[in-house]
Design a protein that fits this description.
alpha/beta, FAD/NAD(P)-binding domain, 5-stranded mixed beta sheet, 5-stranded parallel beta sheet, 18 helices, about 30% helix, disordered N terminus, Amino_oxidase, transmembrane, oxidoreductase activity
Length: about 625
């Protein structure tokens, strides 16, 4: 029986049965209690009042991260219907429940009641008192406004439960406790971190979105260690196809690109007589151009070029641009100075580390820590309006269910998400040149699980293959996990496309058609083996996969980043966080982390020692 069927008329609570001392990650409920507008969900410990244990968003409320649908045994409780117990919603498709009634004579409580008449009365009195205490507490925290929304009392509000919002919650919760709230517009948290299992709720997970941490991203690796996340590494062995020829890169040496340039573009000086690899020589020259432009204003930097491809063509010719597109990735129409600033900040080296359990482990563990310290979290509450009230220096944030009046806001809504947000704060942000210069990049990914590792039988693959790329094809590149956690799943990211065929993938509307297209694209690459049908697959279109600058943007990446920390001129208590506003590190969780750290350092008096990401100490008391 699912939760919707088991939910009796007038019920207001569903309490997870695991012991309250279990952490969010360890409870059976820590995987899936999804969103439904009809039901409310609250966790409270047996015999403990909500006032004594403010866990309105404890494990069971957080459950259902990243579309992993496990079962959760829950107890249905009929209670007095009251508007003051509005906390979390949940969805019940994969949610097993059981209804207990006073007529269940097999329960120990009823057996004791029969043996000892009057046994239940003191117990019932305690329960009533506990609920009255909880009611009074919640009345103070949540009250009904004239617009039908519940009023939620939070001193600091975090908008968005992606990596940036989760990291902000992790850092702030020890200092603000229950005065800290987080609202997430979607039923699940995680943002572009979307880890999925082959079968919902069963088996290990693999990433549709963010997958790994670059070796040079030391703060991300320190955070993983701090959270107890195991990182695994694999081999680097790539095969690349361009103009019908195959080029190999084993051990991260990138000799494939040297051969590609020499064989396919014989008329250009691939190394520029620099003794470097072709890409190394090209990037070296681009960095010289960038550094020379830094003395100019942003409006003057590369103003003569329509976009980044025009800059490349001017300095390296049409063959140079073609080589770049064949050897690296789709190169679209983006800001010349923005692209060069991004390239200057690329993670160094080819190595990556991958978390056991997927990147969602960061989200789960950071939010688990924040909730355990009292933070309130509400999913399925997209922000609709953000106002600033100058009279009493508070913000008024409206969601479908709540009116929230925080003194401070950290907002990770990206440019696409701001489209339907109104209010004087939102309108000023959307009207700024910094905001208008940001352009989201659409990314399509398809994760496929296979019956066997068929690519290992191909001369183009092999047992250590980590990547197969053909940047002019529609699969673009296939990532093959060589680290144990991913390898043992027989799983690949069969498609990663951020420009070549995005529209094609977006129009595919059935699993059958998606399977055919994936097999067709990979078969054209692996010509010496038969590519089988995947046993299952999962695809996703990220409209905001990562972010760049519009062509001829008048603001630099650094100027956008500085603006994001105080984008509303009337108050320093509103900040934007996330990689969308840290364009020098676009597309990386590390970009979101650095964004949050900058805000906490500038506006919350945090200090971070070195590159460590331990819970930050404060200079001043709050």
């Amino acid at each position: 029986m699912n939760g919707r069927e088991a939910y009796p008329e007038g019920a207001t609570e569903c309490r997870c049965l695991p012991d309250s001392t279990a952490s969010f990650k360890d409870t059976p409920c820590s995987r899936d209690v999804k969103q439904s507008p009809k039901f409310r969900f609250r966790y409270d410990d047996e015999g403990e009042s909500q006032a004594e244990n403010d866990k309105a968003a404890h494990p069971c409320v957080l459950a259902s991260l990243l579309q992993d649908h496990s079962s959760c045994d829950c107890e249905i409780k009929v209670a007095i219907q009251t508007e003051h117990f509005q906390t979390e919603h949940f969805q019940t498709e994969h949610f097993q429940t059981k209804q207990r009634t006073a007529a269940d004579s097999s329960s120990p409580e009823n057996a004791r009641a029969k043996k000892y008449p009057g046994y239940c009365y003191p117990f019932l009195l305690l329960v009533i008192l506990a609920h009255l205490s909880a009611l009074l507490f919640m009345i103070c925290r949540i009250s009904r406004g004239g617009d039908g929304r519940s009023r939620l009392d939070c001193e600091v509000l975090i908008v968005g439960g992606g990596f940036a919002g989760s990291y902000a919650a992790y850092q702030l919760a020890p200092h603000y406790g229950s005065r800290l709230c987080l609202v997430e517009g979607l039923p699940e948290v995680g943002g572009r971190i979307r880890d999925v299992s082959e079968k919902p709720g069963m088996g290990p997970k693999f990433g549709l979105g963010a997958m790994g941490v670059a070796d040079s991203q030391t703060e991300m690796k320190s955070l993983a260690n701090e959270l107890g996340i195991t990182l695994q590494t694999g081999t680097v062995s790539e095969v690349q196809k361009a103009q019908g020829k195959y080029f190999f890169n084993r051990g991260g040496s990138f000799e494939n690109r040297s051969r590609l340039c020499e064989e396919l573009f014989p008329n250009r000086n691939c190394t520029g007589n620099s003794g470097r690899t072709p890409l190394g020589a090209m990037f070296g020259r681009l960095m010289e151009l960038r550094n020379a432009s830094l003395e100019l204003s942003t409006r003057e930097r590369f103003a003569e070029f329509a976009d980044f491809p025009a800059l490349v063509t001017a300095h390296f010719g049409a063959d140079g641009l073609a080589f770049l597109r064949e050897s690296v990735s789709h190169v679209g129409s983006i800001s010349a100075h923005g692209a060069l600033d991004f390239l200057a900040n690329l993670p160094k080296g080819a190595g990556k580390s991958y978390p056991v359990g997927g990147m969602s482990e960061f989200i789960v563990r950071m939010l688990d820590s924040a909730v355990s310290k009292g933070m309130q979290i509400y999913r399925g509450e997209p922000v609709q309006r953000i106002e600033h009230q100058a009279a009493n220096e508070v913000f008024i944030v409206r969601t479908p269910a709540f009116t929230i009046t925080p003194q401070r806001v950290l907002c990770s809504i990206d440019p696409i998400g701001f489209a339907d947000v109104t209010g004087n704060v939102a309108e000023q942000i959307k009207g700024s040149l910094e905001f208008q210069g940001i352009v989201p990049q659409t990314v399509v990914t398809v994760t496929a699980w296979w019956h066997d590792r068929w690519w290992e039988e191909s001369v183009y693959g092999g047992k250590n293959l980590s990547k197969a790329a053909h940047y002019r094809s529609c699969f673009n590149n296939m990532l093959v996990p060589t680290f144990p956690y991913g390898r043992d799943q027989n799983v690949t990211r069969a498609v990663y496309d951020d420009g070549t065929c995005v529209e094609k993938w977006e129009t595919i509307d059935t699993t059958e058609r998606l399977q055919r297209e994936v097999v067709k694209e990979l078969q054209a690459f692996f010509k010496d083996v038969t590519v089988p049908r995947p046993r299952s697959l999962n695809g996703f279109v990220f409209k905001n996969g990562w972010h760049f600058q519009q062509p001829q943007s008048v603001k630099s990446n650094d100027e956008v980043f500085e603006w994001s920390r105080r984008p509303f001129s009337r108050s320093s208590n509103f900040s934007l966080i996330g990689e969308a506003y840290n364009l020098n590190h676009a597309g990386w969780c590390d970009g979101a982390l650095q964004s949050v750290k900058a805000v906490l350092t500038e506006h919350y008096n945090f200090t971070f020692s070195g590159t460590a990401t331990t819970i930050a100490s404060k200079i001043d008391s709050l």
